[in-house]
Amino acid sequence: MRIVMLGAPGSGKGTQGERLALHHRIPKLSTGDALRAAVKAGTPLGLQAKATMEAGGLVANELVIGIVRERLAADDAARGFILDGFPRNAAQARTLDRLLDELGQPGISRVIHLLVDEDEIVNRLVVRGALQGRADDNEATIRARIAVYRAETAPLLDYYGERGLLVTIPGVGDVAAIFAQMLAASAAERDVAVAA
Ligand code: B4P
Residue 101 Cα, ligand 1 centroid: separation in angstroms? Predict the structure, then answer.
C-alpha cells in the first residue's frame, strides 16, 4: 500500500494520514514535519528551508527530494508508506515515479485527495497558529500557501486522475467519519491489487 495524500494546506492530510498509517502499520512521511524538524535543529537543510517556509513558498525540489529518497529507501518502507505533503508539484511527482522504480518498488497505489474550501482552511489554520505558534499559520501566509497549492499542486489531481489512482473525499466534518471514507478508499485499492 503506497498512498499519497493530496490536499490544500490545512485540509487534514497530516491528521488523517497519521491515523491511516497507524491503522495499516506502515510509516508516514510528512515532508513538512521533516522540514520543520530540520529548521528547529538548525541543520544546513533547515537553514536553507526556513525563509521559504515562513513565506509560504515551496522549498527547493532537490532539498525535499533528498528527504524522501532517504526515507523511502529505509527497510520499514518496503511494504508500504503514506506520503503527506509530497509530491507538491509536477517535477516531484515525476521524481517519485522514478525513485520507486529505482528502489524496485511498485508504483503509487492510491492517491487520496481531501477537498476543503478556502474559508474553512483559513479558519482552521488561524486557530492552529494561535494554539501552536507555527510561523506560517497567519492569514497572509495561509493565503499565499493556498495560491501556491492552486498553481503548483492542484494540477497533480489530473496527473493521478488520468492514471486512475485518484479518490476525492470531502474533508469537512467529523474527523472519524472522514477517516472511515479514507479507510474505504485504501481498502478498495487493496481489492484492486488482489484482483489484478
Ligand atoms: P505541511 O506541513 O505539509 O503543512 P500543511 O499543508 O498545512 O498540512 P498539515 O498536514 O500540517 O495540516 P493538516 O491538513 O493535517 O507544509 C508546510 C510547509 O513545508 C509548506 O508550506 C512548504 O513550505 C514546505 N513543504 C512541505 N512539503 C514540501 C514539498 N513536498 N515541497 C516543497 N516544500 C514543501 O491540518 C490542519 C489543521 O486542521 C490542524 O490543526 C487539524 O487539527 C485541523 N483539522 C484536520 N481535520 C479537521 C476536520 N475534519 N475538522 C476540523 N479541523 C480539522
Answer: 28
